[in-house]
Amino acid sequence: MILSGGTQGRVHVTGEIDGSGPDDAGARVEITSRDVHLDGALIDASGAFGGGEVYLGGGRHGRLDGLPMTAATTVFSAGSVVKADAQHKGDGGTAVVWGDDRAAFLGTITARGGSEGGNGGFVEVSTAQGVVFKGTFDTTAVRGKGGKLLLDPQTAIKIAP
Length: 161
Hints:
The protein has no helices and 17 strands. It is mostly beta strands. The protein has one domain: 3 Solenoid (Pectate Lyase C-like). The strands form three sheets. Strands 1-4-7-10-13-16 form a six-stranded parallel β-sheet, with no helix packed on it. A six-stranded parallel β-sheet has the order 2-5-8-11-14-17, with no helix packed on it.
């Protein structure tokens, strides 16, 4: 699923995007625009046999990774949740929160390994400028190795919950 507001627009997500798949790997969800704002949103890209991919504002390390553009600002509100879990067996997925100028992460991201086996996934919250990181993440795996969190800004502001 792709949501794009173009180079001058803003994408404001308040509802639910369900890309979860009971019979396969999770979905790929891309949300791009000049400004991306999640406000009480639930994005589920989980799959029975592997977590999906969720790209908010850009790809890993700000690369396009097939996206049409990167966001200048991405805000992920406290009430928003992204799930990229493997539900039964398989590795957790990938979730990226990117903003060229600013990324604010206040919500929850999970990229967990499957309950019957699989490793935890990958979560990145990063920007070329500054990150506000006050959210929670879970890349655990019950029967595998834990996943990773990458914070990759020039300046990071970590605020303990």
